[in-house]
Design a protein that fits this description.
heterohexamer, A: Ammonium transporter fold, 16 helices, about 0% strand, B: about 110 residues, alpha+beta, 4-stranded antiparallel sheet, about 20% helix, binds adenosine-5'-diphosphate
């Protein structure tokens, strides 16, 4: 099972030709001609239905971030800080989008085309060959998971842009209500560069079905399964959130003042838009529109539904109330957990995986967090980190063909579990180290926290000079 | 002249206002407040965190009246606002030296 | 005119083969081979453009429910009850989604393949053959209304899932601000099973254009027209709402306390998202992406616009104000009325139908309801029930080819009107009886209403332990 | 480079045939037969992927208007006026949608098929031939920018409907919080008829790639570039807003009372939905789903991101705060500016254009407006008008192939700049005159402003009889 | 020392505050309240239901002042808050026994 | 009986309430208010427009107490609400003639 499209090799071919050109001018033309002939022979088939689906998926993931994620988080903070959260998500999304075009796409999704060209870095990170999308034209194509089925490379660029842009934004929830605006912006950029891009490369970069034996990212080579980003996105961001909230320290008044969410209605809107947008996230990751895409949507419905109901049910059992925030939190936990398994599980497996994630994340948030005493403002670690691990490991189980999953080859649950666990570990170490080091450096240079008075007054007035509600 | 200030349960406001207009009170001012008292609040839980909310929503009514009307007004409020259950609220009475109607400049009794 | 895709007969064929296998092992293999050959010969044509459209439509209907419907309703209640409404819609959506996979799809969309196999129940309800989506794979296909045009069956499963999930949620508006959470959940499940599934089967189940003579649902067989669910969804839910609010009784303080909507802004967001999502609902019901799909969208724009303007205009004439809530209510009335006619009316017919629905629903809500004195908290009956009837009957008129409609065959308005009226009647009786009986049983077992103190305090705190705004 | 699809000539052919029929009955049948044969020979190729993309784009632009634009504006006014803004946008959208079907589409997108048929009016406005969509069936097709690639004409009708409906609604922001409801409705209708329709015709109407030499709209003929509506939509509405707010006069208490936005959270939701919906607006304008569509989306992401960041950055430099409203305003400025260049710029050009627009609009809103002292309540002119001009002129630069753009033919920046400037001028004069005259007439007949008491009390209560929040 | 409490129209707040600072008042406290009086409210209609809203938004201003300043303060408020139309509001004056500035512990006149 | 009215910083409310219950106060009423005083407000900027916001959020606490408790109550509030920084607020004391508990009809001292 392979997860990333082969990208148009035309660029490399052209480069090779250019080199040849340098050596012997008279052989250059025929070389080009042959190249063209070969291309014509295997003219890549682009179906506009697939193209449209990728455009739609891209738009859905953007809506999931702004306003989705922004509102989900914004509703959970106190009214004096809501704008600060909205602006952090909005500006973070904007900043990373531009960096994606500048160097992000290139570092994540390029690499050696053949084993001979590979370097020691090839499994870990890409090259700068496609900086500023060099060589990516409106005609470039990228292969999907189906041999011979291509989509315009630019649809892949924008779809992946949205993943790159939402992931750092997820971390914001852990450090809300106290971090300096400049500090969070710098942190997002550094973390994106040194944790997100390598993880994306390691998990998703490969040569595509038509070049399946070419080099690929480290974890991809191990055979780690991550359909839509359980490790790359959720564990990655969740652990970064944990590290960040510990380095940053607790909010003033933590466990003393009433820090109840200022608007659960906003949180609810956010949760719904996350769910809606997540269909693009999970089903768009199939890169084409077919029966499996529908399966991914179905899984993303039922796993989420099961997680929301499970969270509510346990809440009701243990505390006598089934809450709206519980339903929303459960839903997000379910979405996180089904992400790596979206196109790999059957509906039954999805329901079970969702329900388990709902209960485990509830326990992480309600029992573990207070026990350990860190102040993860909006439970980024408890939901994305823990839910991500549940999903990554659970994928090994629900992908089993014997359980209705879509895992291929000589699939054994135990064998896959080991691979998944290793992948999780690599992710935790990468993001943990990068987050810790970069936050310490930023702390030394800029400082991380606003002043006590600013924190009391609220970041909206103190940092952004405005109030949410008048 | 006296000021009668009453703290009542929010859903009793309309009844109290009707009782007051019935005895000829023509004006009053109302404020949304929170009360702390014998009536117990509730607990709210947001994910892992519990908050004991001890302040309950109440309505404060302020009425300036002639001294000879105080008794009637207090009686009207008392009976309209009563449910017999804890948290029904309080009435306080204190004196005012002066009252002015801004629109006309009338003072004291004429101002009410 | 036929309305439901033929579902992949491969399952039945396989079953037949399996039986054959049981009788004579040596004939089994050839049987399979023949089967495969037949399949290859008439390989069903799936266009990825259609697939993408169905995926998008599915997502739109979900957005229409959460957050759309949830916000529309949530804004209309008092602030102490907003979360209760949100959580009822959210949990209801989740619950029914899972039940759809478990038995809903099977009961609605299976049945006898030939007249010989049909039983007395065939016109009324499906079988349990596809419980847990047994036999539905990523390769299964379902025929659209165009002979030989197929979509992946899973896209049909998820699209129909969203219909099944929103319909019970509509009822919540009628009983808001006083019902017990457990009671409403149980009621939704029972009503879904005994009213929604039979209605969906009766109206929409058939063999598809390639098997148009095979058995079909009762009303479908009569020739009842319901393009996107006027009877199945709106009359069905609207009448259930009426029965439920009568059985439940009035809210404390009804017609005495100020029960003004706590946030018309939320209601407005909800109304807009209902409109936006409804395009998936109405135009997705065409099951493919062509000129008629665009017509359905156009109708869904202009009928809704006309209804909103009509409501506002009459309000202005009779009361001197054209209100935002009037605009939103009119829009929903128009959406309800155009639903059964979405792909059957021309633009002119749609405008007229919408305007009529706007005025009639206004009258139902403003004059009839106070006259009869029931407390339908958010006017589910006045808008969905009454609007649904206007639409169902109006469809007979606007579908007439002589009036620019798309009705086919030897179309007579009068003849069609009779069929439509009969269909409406069947729906009213079914949902009326099911709602009444199930609510009484639930009342006896669990009780239906929260305590007086909980109702005064608000369901958010009393039932869910949280407050919307802090 | 050509920008509007050739519309199905079948109607005209049929008309021609009908005329022939009148003259000599016996030639009529062969004429039809020939027609049919020709059609069969060059059977227009409709790809369902394109169709789906156009349906999706249509829906996105609707979501961009309601609730997007409505919320963006609604959050910026005081809480006593929020419903009035919402209802103006909602009712305006509804009204224009219906008028689009009645005469709008016809006036904008019909015209002489050959130079011989053209009249003096042909470059300025269409005919009434397609009133009530006469002759537009579910089978009619319209050519995209690629020769031989068609989409159902009805998808073009509904896509363009959404442009027509959002543009007048944009103006509402300039005159919010004081205009009479009836006056604004009448103004929108008049302005739509006399400014929007001619501009749309002049800029976008042509014969399509298969009839590129046939007559076209005035500015289209000049070679003006406007990919998705920089002149037609933004300059058009922006200048109308400026004129309207000057004719109307300032709000009571302007520059004295605190008129801070009542909910920046609503504004933020609106800004995000504008962004999301704008992908349909800009990338839908490509009329098909291919690599260039993805490019348009990419440009719409990065230009907007750059503008938001630029606005925030300059705010922070000059005033010490980077605000949420600044981010949102910058984003809208970027969206406006990239609109005419969406499918013409490379990503680098888009980033630069966006950043420039962010800074220039900031300056227009923060420095120019107070200097000139007009009361453009929500900065329609400063953002849409000024941003539109930046975009229209900037398009000449970023479309240059030498700068990575997609301009074609013998492209010179200077030459194109002159054409763009002329187009801007035509637009400013048209909309300026139409707005000024129509507002004066409306003022004389109905009056424009609500009473002072109504303005103080708020339009929600005074005009619409309801309050947003209870 | 006296307490001057004024109920005024919301849009007059800034003018009143300016008038008060002009005569040397350095502090005051403001509350959003709802008033019931001779000024008629309005009717709101939500679909089929009408609500007669008799309470109108008002602003309550409270100012502790030295007794000798009362007259000036009342006059300042009266003239700044007046529109001459019904609903302009009232001013009430009553005595205080004691005032404390929390920050410093200063009392009475120094505390104001 | 006396009324003690205190204007404090919002985030001090819980501490003040705890201090008061510690000395036996069983009931009080709280209102969200805005204060104008020596403590400077802030400036808000919305696009081109700046608003100087001179009113700051404060909490008003009202407590009816027996006259002999006033001193204790004032002291408790003073020390719990103090941060030493400008804007800590004020305490005012004035007399009440009468108090009634609505639920029981008890008056004066029993009503508190
Ligand atoms: N000493 C007091 N001073 C001011 N307000 C008080 C006092 N005691 C009670 N209140 C107000 O009266 C309300 C009702 O009081 P509570 O003790 O709960 O019930 P009851 O009045 O039935 O004894 C409280 O919520 C509070 O607002
Ligand atoms: N007796 C009263 N006690 C307390 N407040 C009052 C009284 N009468 C009026 N008010 C307040 O004064 C406001 C203005 O009073 P109203 O009778 O409407 O107009 P006017 O002051 O011009 O006669 C009311 O809305 C109410 O808040
Ligand atoms: N004369 C007054 N009358 C009523 N309230 C006052 C008065 N002076 C101050 N206040 C209230 O006390 C609060 C704090 O006052 P301020 O002058 O800012 O600080 P401090 O109390 O530390 O001197 C103000 O915000 C206001 O609510």
């Amino acid at each position: 099972m392979k997860f990333v499209p082969t990208l148009d090799r035309g660029v490399d071919a052209a480069k090779a030709s250019a080199l040849a050109l340098g050596l012997s001018l008279f052989t250059a033309l025929p070389a080009f001609a042959q190249d063209a002939a070969a291309t014509a022979a295997a003219a890549p088939k682009v179906d506009k239905g697939d193209t449209t689906w990728m455009l739609v998926s891209t738009i859905l993931v953007i809506m999931m971030t702004i306003p989705g994620l922004a509102l989900f988080y914004g509703g959970l903070v106190r009214s004096k800080n809501v704008l600060s959260v909205l602006v952090q998500v909005f500006a973070g999304f904007s900043l990373i989008s531009i960096l994606w075009v500048v160097y992000g796409y290139s570092l994540a999704f390029t690499g050696a085309g053949t084993a001979a060209d590979a370097t020691a870095l090839t499994p870990f990170i890409g090259t700068l060959d496609k900086m500023f999308l060099a060589g990516v034209t409106t005609d470039s194509v990228a292969e999907t998971f189906t041999k011979g089925v291509y989509i315009p490379e630019l649809t892949f660029v924008i779809f992946q842009l949205t993943f790159a842009a939402i992931t750092p934004a997820l971390i914001i929830g852990a450090i809300a209500e106290r971090i300096k605006f400049a500090a969070v912006m710098v942190f997002l950029v550094v973390w994106f560069t040194f944790s997100y891009l390598p993880m994306a490369h390691m998990v998703w970069w490969w040569g595509g079905p038509s070049a399946a034996d070419a080099p690929s990212g480290l974890l991809f080579g191990w055979g780690a399964l991550d359909f839509a980003g359980g490790t790359v996105v959720h564990i990655n961001a969740g652990v970064a959130g944990l590290v960040a909230c510990i380095v940053l320290g607790k909010r003033i008044g933590f466990n003393k003042d009433n820090m109840a969410p200022h608007s659960l209605v906003l949180t609810m809107i956010g949760a719904c838009l996350l769910w809606v947008g997540w269909f693009g996230f999970n089903a768009g990751s199939n890169l084409e529109a077919n029966g499996l895409t529908a399966q991914a949507i179905l899984n993303t419905i039922v796993a989420t539904a099961a997680a929301a109901l499970a969270w509510m049910f346990v809440e009701w059992l243990t505390r006598g109330h089934a809450s709206m925030l519980g339903a929303a939190s459960g839903a997000v936990a379910g979405l996180v957990a089904i992400t790596p398994a979206a196109g790999l599980a059957g509906a039954g497996g999805a329901i079970v995986l969702g329900a388990v994630a709902g209960v485990v994340c509830l326990w992480a948030v309600v029992s573990i967090k207070p026990m350990l005493g860190y102040d993860d403002s909006l439970d980024v670690f408890g939901v994305h980190g823990v839910g991500g691990v549940v999903g990554a490991l659970g994928t090994a189980i629900v992908a089993a063909p014997s359980l209705g999953g879509f895992g291929v080859g000589e699939y054994t649950i135990a064998g896959q579990l080991v691979i998944q666990a290793k992948a999780v570990l690599v992710c935790i170490v990468t993001t943990g180290v990068v987050s810790f080091v970069s936050l310490y450096v930023i702390k030394m240079i800029f400082g991380l926290r606003v002043t006590e008075q600013a924190e009391r007054e609220g970041l909206d007035i103190a940092t952004h000079g405005e109030r949410a509600y008048n | 002249m006296k000021f009668v200030m009453a703290i009542i349960k929010p859903f009793k406001l309309d009844e109290v206002r009707d009782a007051l207009t019935a005895i000829g009170v023509q004006g009053l001012t109302v404020t949304e407040v929170k009360g702390y008292g014998r009536q117990k609040g509730h607990t709210e839980i947001y994910r892992g965190t519990e908050y004991a909310v001890s302040f309950l929503p109440k309505i404060k009514i302020e009425i300036a009246v002639n001294t000879d009307q105080v008794e009637k007004v207090v009686a009207a409020i008392s009976s309209a606002a009563k449910t017999g259950q804890i948290g029904d609220g309080k009435i306080f009475v204190y004196g005012i030296d002066q009252a002015v109607r801004i629109r006309t400049g009338e003072t004291d009794t004429e101002a009410l």
